[in-house]
Amino acid sequence: MPRLAYSAFSLLRQGLNRHRGWPAAWRTPEPKAHYAAIVVGGGGHGLATAYYLARNHGVTDVAVLERGWLGGGNTGRNTTVVRSNYYFPASGALYDLALKLYEGLSRDLNFNIMLSQRGMLMLAHSAHELEFARRTVNAIRRNGIDCTLLDRDQVRRRLPILDMSPDARFPVVGGYRQARAGVARHDAVAWGYARAADARGVDIIQNCEVLGFIFEGGRVVGVETSRGAIRADRVGLAVAGHSGVLAAKAGFRLPITSYALQAFVSEPIKPILHEVVLSSATGVYVSQSDKGELVVGGGLDLHPSYSQRGNLPVVEGVMSGLVGMFPCFANLRMMRSWGGIVDVVHDSSPIIGPAPVPGLYLDCGWGTGGFKAIPAGGTLLAHVMATGEQHPIARPFGLERFRTGALVDEAAASGIAH
Question: Most exposed: 29, 84, 105, 376, by fewest CB within 10 Å?
């Protein structure tokens, strides 16, 4: 697709003309009867998979099937944090692959994803937490990933608005920081991958819900959809919190529970918070957007649900933790909230690779870490779909780990995975 450059005057004219002169960023094709590959899910992971199938493996006869609109699921319902400071070597390799790809993604896609590597600071609130932070930093650095331990004064200098008073509700004794971490623009990531995949021949088909699977000889050879049957040589699932639902339609059960993860956005204020901050005591994390809004999240609402909205107990808990750390935010109004449906696995690590049913491949179980992993998830699912073999980085994350007991237990190692 041609890349068009617009002057400021041209942009204004197109805006006043309701953009009638602009070409569509991607096509709206009718589904074909057969594809070399189908990717179910038009969020970040699905679109990235289609793009890397085309770019890395030359598989361009691909359809992305999305039951709603592109990026309307978890990709548009998250807090946009990207980082790779994970404890275990397998996790570090996985998330640092994603972060390295993010660092070059605007150039790769020719689309500004607004990556802001402002750093992320994890707070420690007790001597025990600080000792654990010290061990965590050592492990992360042994994984070849940047991470720095901070004492109380170093935290104070980085976050002068943090409550560091003697009677603070959550006393701060130090923390650790990844300088390469930060945030990216969620819809720009989806749009960039969509446009780049479309330019390589991928069909992006919205409003196309997968209702079931077509089997021949015990193998998946296509999907039944709300727009008819579509056959394929291989099918990949990248549907986040609905992975368990589609797995059941294919005749197997995944070790996944779906929960709502809620987030909130405040009214805009002048720039005051210059990095992402997370409290290990409360699970609350916060950053400030380029528009000046505070983007705030917390822990899971541990009530299994497919609801994409919040509830008052979680609101109260998150706001209490936020104000406990930053009393200066007490009078801010929260403008909106939302919930994303996250697919949580027992060890808080993803599932990547072949499904129990031949012809079907999985990219799921990311829990609260799905957005930060989009480029890696797409790369690794595309690799196994194209070659039939697991990428070395994906090998620890196959379904067989639940049979062998070789779990990658980031639930215990990292505490929370935002």
Answer: 29
DSSP 395: G
Tokens of 232: 């394929």
DSSP 41: -
Question: Which pLDDT does position 137 carry in this prediction?
Answer: 97
Query: Across residues 163-171, what is the average pLDDT?
Result: 92
Q: What is the pLDDT of residue 1?
A: 38
Q: Which domains does the chain have, with CATH numbers?
A: 26-112+185-255+347-413 (3.50.50.60), 120-181+258-345 (3.30.9.10)
pTM score over 0.90: yes
pLDDT digits (tens, 9 = 90+) for 43-81: 999 999 999 999 999 999 999 999 999 999 999 999 999
Q: What are the C-alpha distances in Å from 365 to residues 251, 409, 417? A: 18, 13, 12
Alpha helices, DSSP H, located in 200-345: 243-249, 312-325
Lowest pLDDT segment from 86-90, 113-117, 169-173, 303-307: 303-307
Q: What is the DSSP string of 62-104?
A: EEEE-SSSTT-SGGGSS--EE----SSHHHHHHHHHHHHHHHT
Both tokens of 14, joined, read: 């197109």
d(CA 366, CA 254): 13
3-state secondary structure 315-344: HHHHHHHHHHHCHHHCCCCEEEEEEEEEEE
Q: In terms of residues, how long is the chain?
A: 418
Tokens of 407: 């779990």
Q: What are the contacts of 18-21 at 24+ separation with CB within 8 A?
A: none
CA distance 411 to 287: 23
Please report which confidence band the pLDDT of residue 20 belongs to, taking 50, 70 and 90 as the band edges: confident
Average pLDDT, the chain: 93
pLDDT digits (tens, 9 = 90+) for 179-233: 999 999 999 999 999 999 999 999 999 999 999 999 999 999 999 999 999 999 9
Beta strands in 113-188 (DSSP E): 120-124, 148-151, 174-178, 182-183
State how far the alpha carbon of 35 is from the alpha carbons of 65, 194, 202, 232, 373, in Å.
12, 18, 10, 5, 26
What are the residues facing 174 on neighbouring strands? 124, 151
Amino acid (1-letter code) at residue 42: G
